[in-house]
Specification:
Blueprint lengths: L2 E4 L4 H7 L3 H11 L3 E5 L11 H15 L3 E6 L9 H15 L3 E4 L11 H20 L4 E5 L8 H11 L4 E6 L10 H8 L3 E6 L1 E5 L11 E2 L5 E5 L8 H10 L6 E3 L7 H15 L2
Parallel strand pairs: 1-2, 1-11, 2-3, 3-4, 4-5, 5-6, 6-7, 7-11
Antiparallel strand pairs: 8-10, 9-10
């Protein structure tokens, strides 16, 4: 199993040093990651004549490093933003320029008063289908992650995938994110694994709602518990078993590490890679 890393995992380091995309590619290669994925390319991070030119530059730089680009991940909200289909088609164009085989986008982040999640899924499904049909023509598969609290537990994302009902559309399985909806990864990953187009390793520290609020840096889960991102292997996510479930269901793609803890950034990534390599054996 190839182990990648998301550009998002370098956020702390990039904020502190103003490192650009080329520099984090160098770091990912030096650390020994097999691939990299990028999240929402920005000209503020690395100037270029256009986002398309930046994507082309990154593709060429990664090719020179022999560092494959595993995926491109972007934010989206088809329920609340006008012209979102056309905007996300533009992101598909960037994914194609990058040479990313997979692009992840969100479905929606909030619902109008009185709307339930099933109604919201039915509303956005035709838009997501239009995007994935466009992406298929460019050789890019699209997927949605269990992410964003509303569509975070396994049955809800599975319902979305069935409603879109297109072979080019699947799931970015984030084994840690299920905890945001108080969904047990060992229950959720077996549901998600057959639909996996891409996968993330993420780990969290967990505190019960019965304990005092631990303060800043913690996520309040749907049912009132508390979680905080941490180095892979330091938290409660059963990473080894989740990877095993993915493999048992035929997943052969890259597994990307997403780090969002407060620990020192680069040592955290190095330690996580060692842990994930061993867990993936």
């Amino acid at each position: 199993m190839k182990i990648g890393v998301s550009s998002y995992s370098f956020a702390q380091y990039m904020n502190e040093t103003k490192a650009n995309y080329f520099q984090i590619c160098d770091l990912a290669k030096e650390m020994g990651f097999d691939a990299i994925e990028f999240i929402d390319l920005s000209l503020d991070v690395q100037p270029a004549p256009s986002l398309a030119a930046l994507a082309s530059d990154i593709r060429d730089y990664c090719a020179k490093l022999k560092l494959p680009i595993a995926a491109y991940t972007v934010g989206a909200d088809f329920l609340n933003h006008e012209n979102e289909v056309e905007r996300i088609k533009g992101q598909v164009d960037l994914a194609a320029i990058l040479g990313a085989p997979v692009m992840r986008h969100d479905a929606f982040w909030s619902m109008p008063e009185g709307m339930c999640w099933r109604q919201a899924v039915k509303t956005v499904a035709p838009m997501i289908r239009e995007v994935t049909e466009y992406a298929a023509a460019k050789g890019v598969r699209t997927c949605t992650e269990n992410h964003g609290f509303i569509l975070q537990d396994a049955e809800r994302v599975e319902t979305l995938i069935h409603t879109v009902n297109h072979p080019n559309y699947g799931w970015l399985v984030d084994m840690g994110n299920f905890l945001c909806a108080d969904d047990n990864p060992l229950r959720a990953v077996p549901i998600a694994a057959p639909y996996a187009f891409h996968a993330h390793v993420k780990d969290f520290i967990f505190k019960s709602f019965a304990e005092d609020n631990p303060g800043d840096g913690w996520i309040h889960t749907r049912n009132g518990n508390y979680i905080r991102g941490t180095v892979a292997g330091h938290g409660v996510v059963p990473v080894r078993k989740c990877l095993s479930i993915l493999k048992e269901n035929g997943y052969q793609g890259v597994v990307s590490y997403e780090f969002e803890g407060p620990e020192q950034n680069l040592p955290a990534l190095k330690n996580a890679l060692k842990f994930i390599r061993k867990a993936a054996e």
